[in-house]
Amino acid sequence: MNDLPVSFNEILETLTLRGGVNTNAVIIGTTLLGIAAGVIGSFALLRKRSLTADALSHATLPGIAGAFLIATALGYSGRSMPLLMLGAAITGVLGVACIHLILHHSRLKEDAAIGLVLSVFFGIGIVLLSLVQNSKNGGGAGLNHYIYGQTAAMTHKDAQLMGAIGVVASLIAIVMLKEFMVVCFNETFARATGLRVWLIDSIMLGLVVLITVSGLQAVGIILIVAMLIIPPAAARFWTDRLWRLVLISAFIGGLSGYAGASISALMPRKPAGAVIVLVAGAVFLVSMLIAPTRGIIADSMRRLRLRARIAIDHVLEELYEREHGATAGHPIGSPVLLRLIALRGWITKSDRAYTLTPAGRTQGQRIHRNHLLWEQYLVSYADIAPTHVDWSVDQVEHVLTDELISELEAALSKRGITVDQLPGTRKNGTPA
Amino acid sequence: MSSSAFQTFLILDLLALLAAIFAALSCGLLGNFLVLRKQSLMGDAISHAVLPGLVGAFLITQSRSPGIMFVGAAASALVTVMLVELIKRLGKVEPGAAMGVVFSILFALGVYLLENNAARSVDLDADCVLHGNLQNLFWTATPSSWSPLLDVQSIQGMPRAAIELLVFRDRFIAPVPYQIWTLFGTTIAVVLFITVLFKELRIASFDAGISTVQGINAGVMHMALMTFVAIAAVASFEAVGSILVIAMLIAPAATARLLTDRLITQIIVSAVIALVTAISGYALASFMGVNAAGMMASISGALLVFVMIASPSHGIITKAQNQRRLGNLVAMEDVLGSLYRLWETDERTTRAGLLTASGNSGRMGKAIDRAIASGLITVQGSDLTLTETGLSQGAAVIRKHRLWEGYLVDEAGISPDHVHDTAEHLEHLLDPPPSVIDDQSADIHTDPHGKPIPPK
């Protein structure tokens, strides 16, 4: 990988935007684009349009090649950036329109419609590209850079245009935040409040088109959709609130754009599009692992803690019942678990056997009482035969909250049942 | 075709065409089950995501043997399926986004590895990944190379036939590139998979619950299908590129689905469509001198559009025709019904009067003309009068209308002054209300408004 040694100074210069004018423009432009993609991608994600955006970006290829062919046929330069972007936008929107047509006028489902538009439009684009390459005019040689993107070929004007579009798109999204939010979360409600959902959807689509076509040169057709999908999907692990989602997603998008463009500028043969997506992907993986609300680690910790609590509850309940004459049927728990409970001060070891401490006894009694309550509730309200309730009760007794317990007590006492009078329906008739 | 043109075809085009056909067939056949399960995009994800597996396997082993490439691709396909599941479960995002995240990251990784090692792996390049490399599949054997070796007649103790067989093998079979054999084998394997496990695949695709009850593990069938999709994607990848793989996984099956309701027919039709797409796409591409994979994808799209419009069972034209026919029928019934009501009260109306009363729609005007033409209405002076047939048909409409009104009041509890508009729609149904069908002998003579119900 050490094709070209990069000095520390050079790295620092690039990262702090003291490199060449072009490099700076590209890095700033990509960062702004990343922020905008993060913002707009959040809404596309919530509106379940992520893969529609993928079809859209693939559908821009025939537009790029077609715009070039038409422009050269009319005697203009086919390399004009705004012209190619216009062509890209036209066929991109056409692709989305085709998805809607297929959905409304045939029995095919959304997955097939998206896949069809994506592959057929791209295929047409490939055909047009080979027409461009066959034509005598050699100017079309660079068009296939739009497929994977190439920051090296960008002028600082291209980069400025990209950054400006990013800023404008982000501003529009922020101004429309409330409308977008309503449409994303509850379409029916939005309709009922008199919002024109189709209009808001169209604006959203327009913003996605803007991001897609302005990012084509830097990131490329195939990977631009990743800038719209990955940052919000990563942000989703961190929060449940929309405005936080948008902020975090914008941050991840901007970071990926900045890091990707810098790395690509510093080292040879590092395609900016792929590097940007890989940076975003790395952030995604880290988020999936460590995010405190939804991350894998937090999630497994929660599961583990719940399982431990249930195991402890069972031991305390068992010991409590034995104190009240239940027969000791099976071992009460693994030595590790017992030591853990002893550490909490709920049981003590004496004569090679564990006994409950007063605190433990309270706990055990509480769990035992919950068990009886829920059991009685099932028998009297859910019409479950007394012989069938025990299994489900063992699951539920641990998750009863205090409010639920007082509700249960109230419901049962309405029918004249109080748990303290229960004829110990369980095991050896232990009183509650 | 001159013999030299034929020779050119044999050398340059035959194997490429075969590769395209095999790729289209194997993907097209499998696609039927993906489209049925609404998992078309899983094929999309897999065909993007195998790239890092292919490149990684090559970089690690420095070998391009199909076996190693396949292991790499299968590994990344497996990672894709697992990651998608994990992200769906943990991230609580829509399946599409989960898929998009996974395949774009993996594809980016593949592109990165490719570009970063471009110097070392000359023959895998990023553009070929997308649109394949059909033009590199040529046959170095030619009929002209047949003759000189036929003179080797005198290898001792060997019959002439055996020698010819050896010559044939060396000259014609050996130069066939391995991609053709891989694709051929894949197509055979896919056909076997679908024929042998057809029943299981069908039931698991239509209803996972019933499938499990009948002892067919839908999850296992799903994994088997995904494995075959991955195999077909990898085998086709080099020859036709990922875009054609996606197009062939979806388009033939989707097109066939618009032509038939039976799965077996759909599979056969999709195979024919795949074949037609491959051959015509290749021919047109050679004729125009453009990329063959792109042309095949375009043709598959054109076929889909054509079928979507013109399919005799599900096409837009057929549906529009049916709708128009239904509309005409309703208009005719409305005309006869209105005239029947007037006949009840001994009133008369003109054509213009009837049109004004019914909101002046052009459809009504045409319905009146048709009724006159088919002898349901006669024109006396300028007044419209129902003939005997017209009268009995009008009576049938009004009978249904009033029976439905009665039903809406008695059974649905709607108040009598609110039922007319609903009954205006229901009168065009073929059947009278269920209460009347259930109890043929019931004696209903008047509707909720006290108007008589015409007898049958």
Average pLDDT across residues of chain B?
83
Number of helices of chain B: 19
The largest sheet of chain A is: 2 strands, antiparallel
Taking all Cα atoms into account, the compactness measure Rg of chain B is 34 Å
Percent of residues of chain B in helical segments? over 70%
How many domains make up the 3D coordinates of chain A? 2
Helix content of chain A: over 70%
CA-to-CA gap between the ends of chain B? 73 Å
State the secondary-structure class of chain B.
Answer: mainly alpha
Strand order across the largest sheet of chain A: 1-2
Number of strands of chain B: 3
Largest sheet of chain B: 3 strands, antiparallel
Please identify which CATH superfamily of the largest domain in chain A we are dealing with: ABC transporter involved in vitamin B12 uptake, BtuC
How are helices and strands ordered from N to C of chain B? HHHHHHHHHHHHHHEHHEEHHH
**At CATH's second level, what is the architecture of the largest domain in chain A?**
Orthogonal Bundle
Strand content of chain A: under 5%
The secondary-structure element order of chain A is HHHHHHHHHHHHHHHHEEHHH
Q: Tell me, rounded to a whole number, the average pLDDT of chain A.
A: 83
Biggest interchain interface, per-side counts: A-B, 61 and 63 residues
Shape type of chain A: elongated
Question: Please, could you describe this protein's structure?
Answer:
The complex is a heterodimer of chains A (432) and B (456). With 432 residues, chain A is an all-alpha fold. Chain A has 2 domains: 8-291, ABC transporter involved in vitamin B12 uptake, BtuC (Orthogonal Bundle); 300-421, Winged helix-like DNA-binding domain superfamily/Winged helix DNA-binding domain (Arc Repressor Mutant, subunit A), CATH 1.10.10.10. In chain A, 71% of the residues lie in helices and 2% in strands. Residues 421-432 of chain A have low confidence and may be disordered. By secondary structure, chain B is mainly alpha-helical. Chain B is built from 19 helices and 3 strands. Chain B has helices at 3-36, 40-61, 66-91, 95-116, 126-131, 146-150, 160-173, 178-196, 198-206, 208-213, 218-257, 263-288, 292-310, 316-344, 351-357, 362-373, 388-410, 420-426, 434-438; strands spanning 349-350, 377-380, 383-386. Chain B starts with a helix and ends in an 18-residue tail after the last helix. Chains A and B meet through helix 3, helix 6, helix 12 and helix 14 of A and helix 2, helix 3, helix 4, helix 5 and helix 11 of B.
